[in-house]
Amino acid sequence: MLLSIARAFFSIFSELDILPSNMNYYILIISIGISLLACQAAVDNGEASNEQIVQDTKDTIAKDTIKPQQKDTLPKGIQQLLKAYPQQLKKATPNSIIWADGTEMFYDDRIKNKSFRQLLDEPDLQDQLENMPYNRGKMPQSPARNDDPGRIRYEPFFLKMYGESKDAVRKNLVEVDWLPQSIGQKLLVTTINEVDKKVIALSAELEKHPELHKYLTKPGGTFNWRKIAGTDRMSMHSFGMTIDVNVGYSDYWRWHIKDGDTEGTKVIEYRNRIPIELVEIFEKYGFIWGGKWYHYDSMHFEYRPELFQ
After folding, report:
1. Does residue 186 register a pLDDT over 50?
2. What domain range is 93 assigned to?
C-alpha cells in the first residue's frame, strides 16, 4: 500500500512539471516521507483512499515546491540572461537558469569576497553578470585598477552555449562578408544566437563610415580555438563570437607591461587608438569592447548582449 502511494506522489511531480531547487528538494523529500507515513495510517484506519490522499496533497506539493519563476521575481542578472538568449534559455529558478534541453546551471555559488584572480579563474554566473557592470558609450576616464567589465566569464556557460570542442563549435560557423564594398574580406563567425546576422548588419552600417575603415582592414581574427595567453582560460575566440579589428591600430596590456610583470600586478598605463565612434557602433549590435578594461585589449569586440541591459 505504501508503495502505491509513493508512486502516486511521483506521478504528481510529473503532472505539475515541478523543478525544485537543491535546498527545497531535500526539504521536499523529508516532507514526502512524513506524508507517506501519515497517508499509510489514514488508509489503514479507513479514513481515506489512495485517490483521495493524492488529490488532497496535490495543491500542497505545488505550493511548497519552487517552480520556475515569473521573470520579474528573479535576480536581475538572471533576467538579463533570459532576455539576451531567448533561444537558449527557457526558464529559471531564483538561483539557476534552465537551458532549452532541460540542463540546469546554478547562478550563485555562495562564495563571497573573491579576489580578483578568483573572479577570473573561479567565477560563477553571478560574478559574470553583477561584479563589474559594463557601461556603453563614452568613457569618462581610463578604467580603474582591475576594472574589467565582461572579462569575468563563467566558462561552462559559453561551452554549453557555443560548443564544448573545436569540432562542435566549427559545425555552427559560417563565412560572412566583411564590408564587401570597401574591404571585401571573409570572417568566420557562429550562427548561434544569430551572431552571423548581427555581424552582417554591423558590416552594413560600418560601410557608411569610410573614416573608420582603416581600423577595420586586416582584421586580427574571429574563430580560433585556444587558451587566453598566459592562462588556462578559454579565449572567447574559441566560440566564433568575437572580432579583433586592425592590429596595427590596437593596444594590448601585455605588450606594454614592464619588468616582465605578466600578471599585471604593477600599475598598467592605459593606451588606446580606437575611436569611440567605432566602439558605439559595435555596442549597438551587442558587442562589448576590450578597450574598456583596465587590462585593455583595444582590438577586441565580443558578443555579450546580457551585459547591456
Report:
1. yes
2. 71-106
